[in-house]
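hi! just following up on the protien thing from before. the input was this:
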Amino acid sequence: MPPPSPAATPAPAEGSVTRPAVVRVRDLVRTFGEVRALDGVSLDVQPGIVYGLLGPNGAGKTTLIRVLATLLRPQSGSAEVAGVDVLADPTTARTRIGLAGQFAAVDEYLTGRENVAMVGRLYGLSPAEARRRTQDVLERIHLTDAADRQVGTYSGGMRRRLDLAASLVGRPQVMFLDEPTTGIDPRSRMDLWELIEDLVEAGTTVLLTTQYLEEADRLAQRIAVIDQGRIVSEGTADELKDALGGAVLEVAVGEDDRAAATEVLERVGGDPVTRDPARGRLRIPARDGSQTLLAAVRALDDAGVRTSDIALHRPSLDDVFLAVTGKPVEPTPAANAEVDVEDPDATASRAARRGRRPSRRSRG
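and the predicted 3d structure came back as:
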């Protein structure tokens, strides 16, 4: 399946009025030894939206977030957040951003209220203003009932919400959320989605990294797919899906029949087959819609290929991800799972966890 064309810096729609980008990245390069975690990344994020960043493990998502959050310097390139050069003036940049990483950076021995107020004071707020804003954000994330309990008694979802509250106490113009719903239950995930939507309605711009495709589909007004340190596709969810062209034919076959099915489908569809080995599924563009489906059913039957399922559907973000990266979405690990230390993104995340308190305080 041919991938959609890359679009690092999209052109505005004809007749539309665009505002200056609140996040502007140009040609960022960051290496870890011989690994190019960022390989010339460029993107623009317009104010007042959720901008989703999708990519497999090690693609460069966390590295990009760490550069934008002033936690990591690139070898070359430039980055601006809310009109501030994050490389030339990181101190000012930190006053305009909030950061919630992959792991909730909260002090278990303090109460929820004390955690948020402490970050407010680190932003430079007066004690009275820190208390006032703490109450405000605790109400916004629905944690007032548990605010005076020790955080060690919180569930994973509550800790995530508290982490978000601490990021909001400085009223940032731009919020960086690095896989914020990893490892939490579906109910808490939906609660966080609603909170993110509320943030955007209130005027905050959100840059969200995620491996949950339904999360990006629901929340993000624009989406970039990053792979091997490069932006390989960018647009709205509908634009990315439409770029695949028409419908997609998906066939589920056993491992023994996979090679034969691949040969048949490529002959019928005229395009390379993309594979999702974990689910035992093969996909091809169905340019003629139901006629492609009928032709594939007949050809597979004639070839003696046994299928457990065959379906025609509109392209999904899953199809986009598979097409542009050549690999299926990987299962998102639980919050306490170990990560691959050879993965530059994972290494950066682990380093942030080890030094989470200094990194967290960089919010202000």
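The longest strand covers residues 35-45.
Residues 246-314 form a domain with the Alpha-Beta Plaits fold (CATH 3.30.70).
cheers
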